[in-house]
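## Example pair
The file below holds two records. Each record gives the amino-acid sequence first, followed by its structure token line.
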Amino acid sequence: MISTLHPKSLEQSPLPKASELRTLIDELIADQAQLQTPVARFAEIHDRQPDLADHYRNLIPLSQPAAGEQYAFEVSLDRCTGCKACVSACHNLNGLDEHEAWRDTGTLVGGKVAPGWQQTITSACHHCEDPGCLNGCPVGAYEKDPDNGIVRHLDDQCIGCSYCILKCPFDVPKYSKQRGIVRKCDMCHQRLAEGEAPACVQACPTEAIRIVKVPTQTPIAPPRTSPLPVFLTGAPDPSITRPTTRYIGRDVPLSAHAADRSTLTPQHAHWPLIFMLVLTQAGIGVLGSAAFQESPALMVTGAILFNLGMAAATLHLGQPLKAWRFFLGLRTSWLSREILAFSLFAPLPFALAALPFLPDFPFKNLITPCVSWITIPLGIGAIFTSVMIYHDTRRSLWRLPLTATRFYGTTLSFFFLALSLHFPWAKCLLVVTLCAKAGPEISMLLHRRPSDEWAPDLHSARLYRGPLKNLILIRAATTLFTLLALFVSPWLALPLLLISEIFERQLFFQAVQAPKMPGHFGSPLPH
């Protein structure tokens, strides 16, 4: 018997609509829209919570600093192994240029009395209470955050003068040739603002680095009866800028010192500054002689020398077109004051060089000597600002008496050389000036102080007798040839004296001991 089917069983199921049909291509496109790649999955997980957040939450403050407090690095010497994970993380997470580093490591070793002892040190910017970089910057390219105390560098304001590098006793700011500016650690302030730890804190496998809140507003000049707290044995004097970094853990022996203390490395020569200083001081000296003699040739020569020096100064700037903002640092920066002083002096060489060739006009005979005499006090003042620029860095070889002797000695040398064209007795004064100027250099060369064998002056003396000995010989030879040529013709002695002073200024820059945090073991040169 043929079975009878229910009518509904004969009905066909409805066909899917065209919009519901999914081809293989549709499925692939939908899958790509979800970005299920390893990078996408990592980004999704990271967006939920920063990497290692559970790990580093106890390594950063969970609240903003209160009044009278600021953020600071705290380094546990017991935990630091010198692995440089912090250095690598800082470099990569902050997108630094090749060979650029904002954090570094070094080594302290025991002294002669203590038993064998060694300690690795990690350091970055100390975000000082009285930062030298901020006080020295001529264009206000540094700011200290009033809320958290972080010292930040404003890249868009920097002119690349590198004066902050000289002002910082810890060698923190780093010059970038590629960008023409200086940059430094900013404690990853953008990460801290989001509750995330700085790169170095996240990367340290032993939790040796953390961010803490420390009290501020300590006295700038504490009473002499109360000793300053020890910042870190073997590190530069903390009283200069009052660093906030705290080194805790094992006690550091007072006899400990930097592992690279005996390494003799000449400092950067700063050739644009060498030519700027020598040529401007030579020009001022020659122009100053115009008050005692009328010589159009000398006036033109002095103007050329001075303006060549001013042109050389711009070559030292990474961003010279931004230098017009120098007035922003007049309150604290001697570099700003130097720019102002030389800018006020700059019209005088042009006036002195042009006046002899202008046709007679009323009061010309009165204006010429007035301009000549004005150059003397203004020139002395301008050179004084140059002296203070280097004295203010607190480097021993650049202290006020030595720097003033060098700079004013150069000016007087060219002053007496110019006078000797018409006054033969000035030759004797030039010889006396050159001998007096060489006195501190000879004293430094023979400097020996057994009671303090690692004094900064003795370090400079070792450089004189070691890596820079050939430069010393050339400097002495050119000075001798200058004196011989002087009694033939002052014009012949002029270029020789310039060469001699250029070598002297090279020694001024390269023989200085630059303070910095402890470095690693080097290859000490023979003393």
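Second record, same layout:
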Amino acid sequence: MPSLIEYIPFLIEGSLWTLSLVALGLSLGFSLGLPIALMKFYGVKLDAYIWFMRGTPLIVLLSLLYWGVFPALGVKLGPFETSVIALGLRSSAYQSQIFLSALNSVDSGQIIAARSIGMRERQVVTYVLLPQALRISLPSWSNEYAIMLKDSSICFALGVMEILTRARYISVATDSALLPYLLAGVLFFSLTHAGTGALELIYRRVRIKGTLGG
């Protein structure tokens, strides 16, 4: 029977799949969440979308897309691509709330002043709102990274070769469950700590003095 040591590179390779899921999922969530936040900031009602995405368990959303929506539309996507879309859609709802809170925390006096000197609304968003809101949102966005990293393990349900899926394969091959899953936990912990630590360093460099944590 193969020893666990032989499978360590196989398990570590799964961290690349996990990080790919998280990076792409966060990127999709950002590209959708920020516009949603801006629209809500200006009064557009998108509560139904946010309510649905936040209220639907990820495993249900994965199943709905992979076995329901995409086949019904005649779209053929693999487990990895479907997982990225599900993670991104769900994250967009949470990220929109993060960015909306950050937008609301920008001093309204600055917005009024920008408009008073003739700035168009697009310029107000580009030069006043976004530069501050994005920096203010970094701590909460760091939490979203940690949450998505852990949620990515649910993509195990579609057979994506991330950390948890590989830990299961190793446990079957070695007839031992304790160490493979323990190592998987260590990997998740390490990736969480490294990622949130890096984002904290970035926040310290770009934070706005006078704001919470600034």
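Notes on the second record: The chain has one domain: 4-206. The two ends are 55 Å apart (CA to CA).
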